[in-house]
## 1
Amino acid sequence: MRAGWNGAEPAALPPLDLRERLRLALRAAAAAFALAVLFALFLPLRGIDLLLARLAGRPVTALGPGTVRVWAAQALPTLGLRLVMAGEPMRAGGAFVANHSSWIDIVALQRAAAPFLVSKAEVRAWPGIGLIGRAIGTMFIDRRPAEARRQEAALYARLARGDRMALFPEGTSSDGRRILPFKSSLFGVFLAPGLEAVAVQPVTIAYRPRPGLPPDFYGWWGEMDFATHLRDVLARSTGGTVTLTFHPPLPLAGHPDRKTLARAAEAAVRSAFPPPP
């Protein structure tokens, strides 16, 4: 994973001490147990949702996403984080459009609203994560120009049936201390005919580590290894917060093209992002 903004390296951390190693062992065991139990529960509940949707002739997404929210609700404390929310997540179909600092963004958004995710195509092949992503309905985006039309059609179909998605238009993750320019490529679908009822809600995600940890501690970026970052969060994170600010949904009628819509979403997200110290 490349950060794509300045090539800086994350802050170096000291070796884990005995207390951190013990915390790592306990949290890792708890996280693995919760994931195994809730994923085993999710699969049949997701199947019931799909069966009911076929019988009703419309989307039914009550049981599966509810299980994902339960998982995220227990996962954040396991990661040493407290969720703070400002504003209300929309209930209508559409997209939550957020800045992207870490894989933890996904956990926080699932806890708040349980949207389906739009992710880069290579995540599909990641061990474990790819399997879970496919099971919970993640849409994997291949950014090759030849795939753009097919993927826009797939996004359109999901939005038209009333789904809610989470989209990270920066196109990569940062260190959590800045917001990168939003790419407008995926915003065009929101302005397509037939999606007038769809909403686009900007969301600002901001992390605050406890004193003693680097300010970029929760950021996952550059060439950072996922397993190492997960280990450090499980072992060292205590007393941290992740704040999700849900801004008012953007009126799509006021934006003539995807670029102006992307700029409006970026401005809203930046408006609640804490300034650098």
## 2
Amino acid sequence: MERPTDPTVLVIGGFLSSPPIYGPFREHLLERGARHVEVAQIWTPDWILSVRRGGGAIATRAARALLKAVDAADGVPLLVVGHSTGGVAARVLTATEPYEGRRFAGARRVGALVTLGSPHTNAMEADTTRWKGNGTATFANRYVPGAFWAPRVGYLSVASRWLVGHEEGVEQTGPQRAARRFYEQVLPPPHAAAIEGDGAIPVDAALLPGARHIVLDDVAHAPGARHRWYGSDDVIDTWWPTALEAWQDALAERARTAPSDTSTDPAS
């Protein structure tokens, strides 16, 4: 069977982002052969409200975008790219258990799930004074831990060691000190003397167990940091071929093992 090369891509943005931020990213993916790129309509106010009201509305908006992308894909499973918290929200969409009262069970629609600087471990969610209900990482790690649907869904997690945050007492720049504070909020204690990360998410939190892993050296967490980020034109070339391979391998696995009755397999 000829390996497909033109996936329909769903992009789920990160915390406090809005769709226009991903406009250049969308164009870069189309230039690399994506058949269609759908960006989930999740806006900054939605993210702000989710802190106090829970992530159900975020997941619902992501699910709507997934269904819209599926329509454009003519039934071919999608290549889903989640940036930051959007990557964890994408994992939630594949769970069969209800999240905040909504059941998505979208694994069969996802051919590959790529996360860019996503906090798959998030210690902040344990603080009930700040987060309402089940946080996305807490839920995902309970019901779809690691590369849960592999090999029928391909998984790739991309991280960066751009900024090292050191413990107190070590001379460091202002950005390094700020990064250290972010890293300590995401990683549960005890914390290492030096933590590598992309300025917001530490490497150890961004690498999903069981997924293919890529760790970059000089890439910032998000656009607008006056630095290359995961979606910069040249950076995409460091992970896109592996993402495409993960998607192709998952589709080949489904074709090879297609069961006669898929009613009990949400990843079929």
